[in-house]
Amino acid sequence: MSATLPVQVPLMTEFVSDRLSKKASRHVKERIIEFLLFSAAAFSVFVTVTIVYVLVKESWVFFQTVPLSDFLFDTQWTPLFDDAHYGIMVLLSGTLTSSAVALLVAIPLGTIIAIYLSEFAGFKLREIAKPFLELLGGVPTIVYGYFALTFLTPLLQKIYPDLPGFNLLSAGLVMGVMIVPYVASLSEDAMRAVPMALREGSYAMGATRLQTALWVVTPAATSGIASAYILGISRAVGETMILAVAAGMQPNLTFNPAEPGATITSYIVQVALGDLPHGSIGYQTIFAAGLTLLLMTLAFNLLGYWLRKHYREVY
Amino acid sequence: MDIEQKLENIRGIIVRAKRWDLFFTLLGILSLMVGVLTFTILFVDMAIEGVPRLSMDFFTSFPSRRAANAGILSAWVGTVLVMLLTALAAVPLGVAAGVYLEEYAPKNWITDIIEINISNLAGIPSIVYGLLALGLFVYYFGFGQSILSAGLTLALLILPVIIVATREAIRSIPQAIHEGSYACGATTWQTVRDHILPYSSAGILTGVILGMARAIGETAPIITIGALTFIAFLPPAPFTGEPPAGLFDWIFAPFTVMPIQMFNWTSRPEAAFTVNAAAAGFVLVFMTLAMNGLAIYLRYRLRKNIKW
User: Fold this and answer.
1) How far is CA B79 from CA A75, B161, B256, B285, in A?
2) Do B183 and B232 belong together in one domain?
């Protein structure tokens, strides 16, 4: 913001020191810096464009050999066998099943924790609980995977002895716990943004804290809570290591969480761990799978954006 | 219905409402406990299994086919080097982008696109970044499965975290500081350099630490670019070896990192390797917790000390 001062002191001009006179170099330097900073910000757009370009380019080659209808409707996923089938449904079923289990844990727990922290808990408890939730969200997912495989699965096997060593259930449950902090923290932020006057009005009518929370605060914070849920969903869909470690990596068209299964993400890991030559069809499948994943998360992100825009209560 | 009975009804409603209130309080504490308990079990379980395995040898040995001799030397060296490159790439870019969006950006559609794009980038699964890196860094730029590819991949991954942290830190500086600086005739860049960046540095640092804590535990994108899981050598140190390695030869070296080493041990069936996985996991969790803890402490200090 190089403001040009409208001050004109014609008689004194010769006394203006050199340091204060308007310099072209100063202006140019400002412009160069602004351009550099703009480039840094624009770089993020470049990243997105490159992601889409790389995925579409490799998938394009893939779809030259595999018709889209096979990709969408085939019920087998055996890209590395001689009799190759490319039915993404198989991987999608694993992704959806594990995500559903995770969300069944994360959404109720996350919402209850958010309501509790925002409407019930005292200042002290909240000050301790929020950073703690953050720590919980910061644990590397590979560690959660280890936990699901070596602790939770044996525990579940005691209750339900037929459970295989790799299964979507235990991976999904641990994934749910991993997502709780995200859902809780974002929902809590949304609830805390609801103005105090609304709560006071409700209390003045004789409502209890629970009634206020459920019938006043939660409806007012709907858009924020919904976008917290959507973030949780896209976390679940994109989660990789927990599933790669604890759910096994066999493609399995099933919606039964007590079975092992591969997801889109764990398939990519499996292929990357092997040594597939660059440019082979197996190499291209991971880009097609990645594109599917990107489209899914993009759809959720757009939905979240739309929800925020249209259901936002403005006070 | 006489007044007495009406009162009785109202009392009933109040008692019931209060009972629900109490019930929910308990439910809330219980839910919180589920989180706390899971974390405690996870940590304690891993500590019991892994801590006895932690010795000096564990940190100074290469991975081995025999579980008892295996260590995490190549893994932790790899992690440190990858993190170094990640920070070098992500911090300047992220801070510059954050400063641009807060201090320079005009209100127009280009700015809108950049902003929507950044929040969108934050929602893209990490494995997709791995695919990007595989196509771009590994094959197109020809960096191969090197420390450089991994560092840049993780840098892209944490870029949104750093941008958002920078913007929040800058936004917490009162408008009067800007105005004062401009009133003294400073240009935008002088204002940013002499006022905005110094005052927001602690907030930015917090964001950087959080971003690095995330990057340190990321496994999927690094596996996707094809990092090896069994590395029994270190990247060449500058000016050593025969012929002497150049100053930057290490950035093109093959590598492994802590989470990949842990993944490798976790996916082996022998129990002895599970112990190694627990030990590596304990070190990893300790590192991320320390970083997160530091960030939380910094934020707490910041909130306490600065009163504009």
Assistant:
1) 40, 20, 7, 14
2) yes
